[in-house]
Amino acid sequence: MDEETRHRLAEVRSLAEELQPEQIEAEIGRARVEAYQEGMRFAADYVEHGPRRSERADIPLPRS
After folding, report:
1. Is-above-0.85 flag for pTM?
2. How large is the average pLDDT for residues 36-64?
3. In terms of domain of life, where is this protein from (predicted)?
């Protein structure tokens, strides 16, 4: 993985950490922010480390 990709992944993780779901007033908004945050972390980990071989990928799913 090149340095630019590593830098972009660090930015994605940083953005995920900056999201503050507890500051969202509506419960649906809070759930969406949490799901978005989880998805961003998953994407960064997946790009950096690839799919997990020992288990099925734990892909975050939308909440209903």
Report:
1. no
2. 75
3. Bacteria
